[in-house]
Write a structure and sequence with these properties.
The protein is of the alpha+beta class. The chain has 8 helices and 6 strands, in the order βαβαααααβαββαβ. Keywords: Signal.
Length: about 260
């Protein structure tokens, strides 16, 4: 038997605030879990904030597509990216990453957020370095490519797994596992509450799992929209998505012990 905990209660007890996300999400925890309740709240807050921060980085890349394309990928500096990332995250999560020392967050959460910012910035710096100066064709650095690079590095450096996934991923490495598939099927239902996460304490693996839904933007539709089946500029058949439709999720697996 499982019990459900509204995210609003989690936010209040943990002292955090996530105004952009509705307070209707559920948390599932095994009834006989020996993990302290406060630890569970801190894990959910950390997982949710990491997902919001990664998606904020994806949004910055999304907003700069024209700049990236016109400059052959070099028009977005690491400094400009980081500034936009912090502004985006502050607007969505209500947390100023410049003032993390004074934020009402667990020390581990602060450490992970700083690590994700640095990893994201380094991915942009490396992109600029690896582009050949004589290149005449730039296929684009899309949000999914950014997210994949950042997630892989962040997982290697911290042991916290971030992953972009969907029911029909283009990258085989992003195939959903059983837990992710169940959440994705729920997100795909048009009746599912928008921007509501699904989370669970996995006692057997001593980890916390969270699925953060993603939605198709106008830039997403350039490659993933109509007409379905027609090859896009990246060489893949379009999925036929429409604006605002669920387009997958960010999966977070956070070990209980650092």
């Amino acid at each position: 038997m499982r019990r459900r905990l509204p995210w609003m209660l989690a936010c209040l007890l943990a002292g955090g605030a996530l105004p952009v996300i509705p307070a209707t999400s559920g948390f599932e925890q095994p009834e006989h879990s020996s993990i302290p309740f406060q630890t569970v709240l801190e894990l959910e807050q950390a997982a949710r904030l990491l997902a919001v921060l990664l998606d904020s980085g994806r949004a910055v890349i999304n907003d700069n597509q024209i700049v990236l394309e016109e400059s052959q990928g070099k028009g977005l500096t690491p400094e400009a990216f980081e500034r936009q990332l912090m502004d985006m995250f502050r607007g969505r999560a209500g947390i100023d990453l410049h003032e993390l020392d004074g934020a009402a967050l667990a020390p581990r959460t602060k450490r992970l957020l700083r690590a994700l910012v640095e990893t994201s910035r380094q991915v942009i710096a490396d992109l600029r370095q690896e582009l050949h100066p004589q290149a005449t064709q730039f296929r684009g650095f899309i949000p999914a490519a950014f997210g994949a690079r950042v997630s892989a590095r962040f997982t290697d450096h911290t042991g916290v797994r971030l992953k972009q996934t969907s029911l029909a991923p283009r990258n085989p490495a992003n195939r959903p596992d059983a837990y992710e598939r169940g959440a994705l099927e729920a997100f795909a239902d048009s009746a599912y509450p928008r921007e509501t996460v699904i989370s669970e304490m996995a006692a057997k693996s001593a980890s916390f799992r969270l699925m953060f839904p993603l939605y198709a933007t106008r830039h997403c539709l350039d490659c993933h929209g109509e007409p379905k089946g027609v090859v896009d500029r990246m060489g893949y058949p379009r999925e036929g998505l429409v604006l605002g439709q669920n387009a997958g999720a960010i999966s977070v697996l956070l070990p209980v012990k650092p």
